[in-house]
Each structure stands twice: as C-alpha cells, then as structure tokens.
Amino acid sequence: MKEKLSAFMDNELGELEERRVLAELATDAELRVTWERYHLVRAVIREEGVAPVPGLSERVARQLPDAAPAAAGARVPRPLLRAAAGLALAAAVAAVAIFGLQVLRQPGQPAQLAAGKTPRAETARWNTDRPEHETTLNAYLVEHNEFAPTGMGGMTPYARVVGYDREK
Amino acid sequence: MNIRTGVGAALPLVGALLAAPAVAGDSAHDWLVKMDQAGRRLNYEGAFVYQHGDRLEAMRIVHKVANGSVRERLVALNGAAREIIRTEREVLCYLPDENSVVVEHRKADSLGFPAIRPERLPELEKYYQMRLGKTGRVAGRPAQVVIILARDGYRYGYRLWADQETGLPLKADLLADDEKTIEQFMFAHINIGVAIPASALAPSTPGKGLTWHRERAVEDSAAATQPERWQAGRLPEGFRLSKRLVRKVPALNKVVEHLVYSDGLATVSVFIEKPEPGARPEMLGPSRMGAVHAFGARVDDHHVTAVGEVPAATVALIGGSMAPLE
What we know:
A: 9 helices, B: mainly beta, Phosphorylase Kinase, domain 1, 12-stranded mixed sheet, 3 helices
C-alpha cells in the first residue's frame, strides 16, 4: 500500500487505483499518518514552498466524510512549509524524526480533519501554544546539541529518533 | 562527566584496550576520569533504557572502537525497528517505517562526544559537589555510585553508576536541585570489552530500496557577514563563553549568531537573530521540554533565545542579559 501511496502522491495512479487509495486513506488512520510524513519529507526534499501536490489534500478530503467543509484548510500550512523550504534536507527530516512531527500537527492538518480524532500522543513537546515557536525551539535545540559536550541531551536526540511516535 | 553519559559516555566508548582497573580508595574525581576514559577505549554491546518525561525507550547499542575511531549502532527495541549508525563523520538514521535513510554530517565540534573533560574537573568542583556514593549493581555488574550535585540552582546534578571493573557508566540519573530524578539512562545488560564483528555494526535494514536523504554540506560561510557581536551581561558562576559562531540554521533557513556558554558540565546556547520586518513575533519568556529549558527576549531590534539542559533560572538569567558588544 505504501508504494501505491507514493505513486498516488505523484499522480501516477489510474482513476480506479486512486479511488482505492482514497478509500484506504479514509479508513486507515495509520496510512494517513504515513501519508502525512510522505508529504513533509517530499516537501522538504523538493524544497517546495507549498504542499508538494497542490490539491491533493482537497482530493482526499472530498472523499472523507465530515472533512469537506474544512477542505480548504487541509493543506499543510504554508508558512511552515516555507520555513522548511530552504533547508538542508537531512537536518529538517532529522529534526522531524527527532521531535516527532510536530510540524504536521498544526491546526487544520489533514489527519485531524480526516479522522476527526484526537492526534496521537505526543513525544516530548515544548510547553508553548505557538506552533511556530516550537518549530524554532526544536531547530535551536538540534543546533545546541551539537555543542553541548555533556548532558543527557547527548543521547536524547538519538533516543528520540529511534523512539519517536511509537505510541500511536 | 560524561553524562553524555547517557549515551554520551556510554556512547563514546572506545574499544579495545581496557581502561585501568578501578582501585579501592579512588575519589569521585578519579572515577569521573575513569568513566571518561572507559568511554573512549572500550568496545561494548548491550541494551539500555532511557526514561525522559513520561516516555521510556529501550534500545540496543553496539559500540566499537577501531583505529581510534568509534562506530556505533543504536537499534530501537520497541515499535518500528529504527536504527542509527553513528561514525565520527556522519549519522545515518534508518527509518524502515518511512522507507528512508537520513544522513547527517557531524560537525567537527561534535566529534567524540567528549563528555566530561578531565582537565576541567578541578574547576568543576567549585560549582558541583562530587562524592562517592555506595556501591551497587547495574545490569548484573558491580557498580560504584558517583554523585555530582550542583552547588547552586543554576545547573542540574547527576547520579552515576560506574562499572566497578572498567569505569564504564552503566546508569545515569539527571537530578533537579531537590535531587529528584528528572531523566534516567540505564543499561539492562551489557558485554564490555568484547570483540565486535563488523557485521554487528551493519544495519539490519537493507538500504537498498529505501530513499536516501543526504544533508548538503552546511555553509557557515555566513560568518563573513557577521553583523554584530553579542555577550551575556550576567552569567551564573562558572559559566563562560566556549564557542561563538555565526551560522545558518538549516531548519529555519535563518542566519543567527550562536554563542555557547558552559561551566564544563552544563551548556547553554544563545541564538541571536534579527527578525525580518513583518515576521511573526518570536517566543518571549520561558518555555520547557522535559529537562530542557528555553528563554526568549527582545533586545532592541534583535531576538534572543537561550536554550539548554539547565534549570529555567539559568536560561532566563543568560538569555535576559544579552546585549551587543561595544
């Protein structure tokens, strides 16, 4: 299914297959999470300032009950992706891996819309209600850890990489 | 101490030669030196748990030292079988559940995870009280407890269990000033000083078929455009500037001045940026994530953010006192 998802994101599926994927996305929360990640990773890889496949979210949203009214908000928020746009890929992806995808947990994100569910339990998070602050703090923490010679922090980033998002 | 000990000490272990055996009568100071050395000399493999916040991670670690350089592999034992292969040059994250491998370069500064620097030990004792605790047992091995308590509220303390035989840190607790444990790292089992075949360091996930994401070389050339230089007006006792650089933060695509202050054990980073006109307001005041605290402040038309694995008061003091140099 993941290969299909990937092809779907590239608009390489036929109509029938596409419908299957959409149906699958509508019912499989885990698949939706994968899909979100693909989006982020690709956006970063391609250094695109907007959602990599414009309209994809809407396409999916249309298929999902309850999601239609919010379809316009389903796109990954622009400022966040723009922030991600110019960056060195690995650093970004690693930061995402380390800190557990907060970037995608913004209001209006597809998974919440689609599922109408509470987001999964979080990995450790900053106690701020401003997502953009969290993004900044995470980035700074990654930089900081490079230079902190001592501390549990030395292992923390690695532990978070291998451990993130486990409780979904 | 290597408290990177967590993984630090534990991580940077070096293999092959056994460290000098510990001797009864060694001081806390001696034990810290021993822990540091063990980390640089010993091969080991085992499994550890790491508890932070309300999370508990279990990982397998294989650590080999050959020709003076360390190669290490971490494998998640729960959930997705993510792996990290760490060499002195790069960090490879295998994320099979993402069909991805992420490769990051390590910066020169981070080579070797130096953990505690023995030469700063005497000085450290001004800010930390160090003493031997009882002996105990961790991962089935006799261990010596070494306790490091901050003498003021500006840094955390540590409780360390060093392997009696080799000095390798087997367990580490990060302590708040009331001596409550904030985070813990502990080996559940470990084999020290064993031969490690190259195959044990190979990822179990074949890289073939996965998407590889490679970080581009980081340009810190932005340093040429270095605008102003900043400094902390107030520092907790013992903290001093250990590094100053101007760099582009990849994840933010911003150029910032990055100052690193350290007391030899605790480290605080301060980032100074000049926000674009019309940019969103940056974080003001305190924030925290587990044992890590941050503090944001506005100074003239610059934004200052202090971050570190230290108590809130430390980042507030440092971050709140930043000012441009003359």
